């Protein structure tokens, strides 16, 4: 029994979103990391 190779044109999932960063990306990353993790939502 032989398996067919998967098609290279097969797409899975939605297209990724594009994020535009204004200014210096290093400053934006540092600022985002400084905020910390979001709190857990109350149930």
Molecular structure report:
This protein has one helix spanning 25-35. The model has no long low-confidence stretch (mean pLDDT 77). The protein starts with 24 loop residues before the first helix and ends in an 8-residue tail after the last helix. The protein contains one helix and no strands. It has 43 residues and is mainly α.
Count the DSSP helices: 1
Structural class: mainly alpha
Report the oligomer.
single chain
Largest sheet: none
CA-atom Rg in angstroms: 20 Å
Report the count of strand segments.
0
**Contiguous uncertain segments of 5+ residues:** none
- End-to-end Cα distance, whole Å, is 52 Å
Provide mean pLDDT, rounded.
77
Beta-strand portion reads under 5%
Q: Portion of residues in helices?
A: 25-40%
In brief:
By secondary structure, this protein is mainly alpha-helical. 26% of the residues lie in helices and 0% in strands.
List keywords for this structure.
single chain, 43 residues, mainly alpha, 26% helix, elongated
Please outline the helices and strands:
Layout: H1 25-35
């Amino acid at each position: 029994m032989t398996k067919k190779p998967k098609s290279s044109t097969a797409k899975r999932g939605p297209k990724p979103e594009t994020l535009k960063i204004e200014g210096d990306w290093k400053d934006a990353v540092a600022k985002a990391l400084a905020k910390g993790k979001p709190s857990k939502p109350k149930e």
